């Protein structure tokens, strides 16, 4: 009898940097264990992805914005609405075409931010697996609030959430705390992410059990809610996990030379600053951050996307000279893995947070919106690897240079800095243990692959 072909998994991330990379890395881990994987993104995104020949296949579908992607939509809300409508149709057509071409999919792993994909899978009789690119903490808050199991705290009060320290309103994800007014579609989507999960066969979280075990316990109501992260490429953690191919996708051109710039800096002497692919500060806040970095007195490497660089105060770069370097985009993992970096000033996007934890770099948390305020609280209060410069997000944030300078100093020097550094090293080791043979994420991957192998064609 001919051997069974390996299961073929369709991986569907929401089309943005912070969602594609974790799901691509997850696809790579799957492939290293036997299944085939095809990552599906939009025509616009695929045009800017330079994929090396890789074991993960790529394919693209239309989201209705083939020329300009999300930036060509009138608003994020408009984009999300159209993505669901057009994406549902083009995804179904793609799955049918694969079937007709004799290369059917066995299962779909879809991003919880593309919940319509679950309906497509159900319609076409394909098992569906939800993949959350957020922390279990943020997911649990969305879930409890959506089910009316948790009130949103009023100003000045706190609520308790299983497995989390008492939470104030500004520490909730911004879509729950206040963005319903600004981003109604995104708020509905964030809250409703888990509405359809009863239909999903598995729910995978890009986290590790050791990091969020208690809060994860509250989500065990779902069938097979498991952690499989962090999806940081294993070349930065332990090459024996799944080889040393990085496979990350950079939608912006990274400045590799900044890694060499770090080479002649003393260990743990440089402050790395990045607010990810989306967040923006206004000119006043950018200036406060700039002067805070200047006043802290350490060398710094600052990722300021090209569209943001005009907000730097006049004469700032000349004033700091060689001590500061500003780049439009960098290979963040290489930077965080570099011994010269002593601190990460971050917006606390979930990927950046996991990357800092995985590579043992303490943080100054400057959350802006979405799940970042919740991640920032965990960084400071639960995992003990950083301090918060602001306790809320977005419009509420009044960054001051004194606060930035003070927070950077706390993370770079003194007794508290040593404690945060040693906690960071402990988490780095925990991550290695979770991903390595027999670790919590490894075991969950083994069982997930067994599930895939059990699906009848
Ligand atoms: N990133 C990068 N180079 C940069 C800044 C960020 O490669 O100069 C990567 C970073 O490593 C992370 C992702 O972009 O994987 C940002 O994801 P995150 O969830 O932290 O933030 P988002 O961009 O979604 O707000």
Automatic annotation (TrEMBL):
It is an enzyme of class 2 (transferase). GO terms for molecular function: quercetin 3-O-glucosyltransferase activity; quercetin 7-O-glucosyltransferase activity. Its EC number is 2.4.1.-. InterPro entries: UDP_glucos_trans, UDP_glycos_trans_CS. Keywords: Glycosyltransferase, Transferase. Pfam families: UDPGT (PF00201). Belongs to the UDP-glycosyltransferase family. This is Glycosyltransferase. It comes from Colocasia esculenta (Wild taro).
């Amino acid at each position: 009898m001919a051997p069974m072909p390996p299961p073929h998994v369709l991986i569907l991330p929401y089309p943005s940097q912070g969602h594609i990379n974790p799901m691509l890395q997850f696809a790579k881990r799957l492939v290293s264990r036997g299944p085939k994987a095809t990552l599906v993104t939009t025509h616009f995104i695929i045009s800017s992805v330079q994929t090396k020949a890789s074991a993960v296949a790529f394919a693209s579908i239309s989201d209705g914005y083939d020329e300009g992607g999300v930036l060509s939509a009138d608003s994020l809300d408009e984009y999300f609405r159209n993505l669901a409508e057009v994406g549902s149709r083009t995804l179904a057509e793609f799955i049918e075409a694969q079937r007709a071409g004799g290369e059917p999919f066995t299962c779909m792993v879809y991003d919880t931010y593309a919940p319509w994909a679950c309906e497509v899978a159900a319609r076409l009789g394909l098992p569906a697996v939800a993949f959350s690119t957020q922390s279990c903490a943020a997911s649990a808050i969305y879930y409890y609030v959506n089910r009316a199991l948790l009130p949103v705290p009023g100003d000045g009060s706190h609520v308790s959430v299983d497995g989390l320290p008492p939470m104030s309103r500004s520490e909730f994800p911004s879509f729950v705390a206040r963005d319903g007014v600004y981003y109604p579609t995104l708020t509905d989507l964030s809250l409703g992410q888990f509405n359809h999960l009863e239909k999903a066969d598995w729910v995978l979280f890009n986290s590790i059990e050791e990091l969020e075990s208690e809060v994860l316990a509250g989500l065990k109501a779902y069938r097979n809610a498991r952690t499989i992260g962090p999806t940081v490429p294993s070349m930065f953690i332990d090459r024996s996990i799944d080889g040393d191919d990085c496979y990350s996708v950079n939608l912006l051109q990274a400045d590799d030379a900044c890694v060499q710039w770090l080479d002649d800096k003393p260990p743990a002497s440089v402050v790395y600053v990045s607010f990810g692919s989306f967040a923006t500060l206004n000119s006043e806040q950018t200036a406060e951050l700039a002067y805070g970095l200047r006043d802290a007195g350490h060398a710094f490497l600052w990722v300021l996307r090209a569209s943001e660089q005009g907000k730097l105060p006049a004469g700032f770069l000349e004033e700091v000279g060689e001590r500061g370097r500003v780049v439009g985009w960098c290979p963040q993992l290489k930077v965080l893995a570099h011994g010269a970096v002593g601190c990460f000033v971050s917006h606390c996007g979930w990927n950046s947070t996991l990357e800092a934890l995985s590579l043992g770099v303490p943080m100054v948390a400057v959350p802006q919106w979405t799940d970042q305020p919740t991640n920032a609280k965990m960084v400071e209060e639960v995992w003990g690897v950083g301090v918060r410069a602001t306790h809320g997000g977005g419009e509420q944030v009044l960054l001051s240079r004194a606060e930035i300078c003070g927070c950077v100093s706390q993370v770079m020097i003194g007794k508290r800095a040593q404690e945060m550094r040693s906690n960071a090293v402990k988490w780095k080791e925990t991550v290695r243990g979770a991903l390595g043979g027999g670790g919590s994420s490894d075991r969950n991957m083994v069982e997930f692959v067994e599930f895939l192998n059990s699906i009848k064609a």
